[in-house]
Each structure stands twice: as C-alpha cells, then as structure tokens.
Specification:
This protein is mainly α. It folds into 2 domains: 1-40, no CATH class; 43-168, no CATH class. The protein contains 6 helices and no strands. It has helices spanning 2-7, 24-40, 44-71, 80-110, 125-136, 145-168. It starts with a helix and ends with a helix. The relative contact order is 0.13.
Length: 169
C-alpha cells in the first residue's frame, strides 16, 4: 500500500505503473478485493531478505568499526564518539547491502498484475534481480542509494548509540 501510494502521481509526470488509489483505506480495499490477503503480501520475498541482510550488516560492521577506531586511538574505548563513528560506518554498510533488496521489493510491489495476482513484469525475486542486472547493469540495483543512506544512516547511528548506552547499563 505504501509503495502504491508513494509511486502515484499525475499522469503527466508518472513513471512506472500507476495504481490510482484515492487514499490509504481505498488502497487496502482495492488490493484486497482484487487479490485477497495474498495481494497485501506481494513483494515480501524481497522485504524479508532485505531485513535479514541489513540487520546482519548493521550489527557486524558496528562492532568491528567501533573496535577499529578505538584500536587506532582516534577515540577512547567506550567513548560516545567511537560509538557514533561505528554507527556511521555501519550506516554505510546497511545502505550498501539493503539497497538492492529495496529496489527489488519496490519493483515487485509496484508492478502491474494479472487478475490472478501474477506479476506482469517479474516472475519473482530472482527473476527481478536478473532482469534489472541484465537491462540496467549491476548499478541498477543501487538506484536511490543516496536516499536510502539519508534515511538509514541517521536511524542506524541513533539506534546503535542508544543500544550501546543501554547495554552499558
């Protein structure tokens, strides 16, 4: 529903498939009536790996980056600056690992579908990756990485900063 509404615009400037929902409740209603509960879960095959890969990258790079800046004595062990530096590095890793999954999820969510709910553009997660890679190159999987970092970077820094502080307690 979020992707349908965010992609929706005037036909003069529209890019990609337009679903033309009036509002959020009509979007839920329309998707449910046309495709049932399964229609509300379309694209989840891209979202689940996105979260798994992003979380793994976030936690692994945070600890390593924080230790690395402390070993170089850029910041003192246990300092808030070391935590913030680790969080910033982790934010970059999260953006780099999650962006391809964001692109695939968005394409799967937003593609037009047949009456039975089958996508008209992609057969699934792997087909979507292969089509993007072959038609747009590997960098096609990184469309919007700047926007992804602007959203995930601060979130990662703050989440890890508060997690680290709470862990010390």
């Amino acid at each position: 529903v979020k992707t349908h509404l965010q992609a929706q615009t005037l036909s003069a400037v529209a890019v990609g498939h337009q679903h033309n929902h009036e509002n959020i409740s009509r979007a839920f209603e329309s998707i449910y009536k046309q495709h049932g509960v399964a229609g509300l879960w379309r694209g989840v095959t891209g979202a689940v790996p996105r979260v798994a890969v992003g979380s793994a990258a976030q936690l692994a790079t945070f600890a390593s980056a924080k230790d690395w800046v402390c070993e170089r004595q850029w910041f003192g062990e246990g300092s808030w600056a070391a935590v913030l530096a680790g969080g910033m590095v982790s934010g970059v890793a999260v953006a780099v690992t999650m962006t391809p999954f964001d692109v695939v999820s968005t394409r799967l969510y937003n593609q037009p579908v047949d009456a039975d709910g089958t996508g008209k553009l992609y057969r699934g997660f792997l087909d979507c990756i292969l089509q993007i890679s072959s038609k747009e190159g590997l960098l096609g999987l990184y469309k919007g990485i700047g926007a992804v970092y602007l959203r995930l970077g601060p979130h990662t820094v703050l989440s890890l900063f508060f997690w680290d502080e709470l862990r010390k307690m």
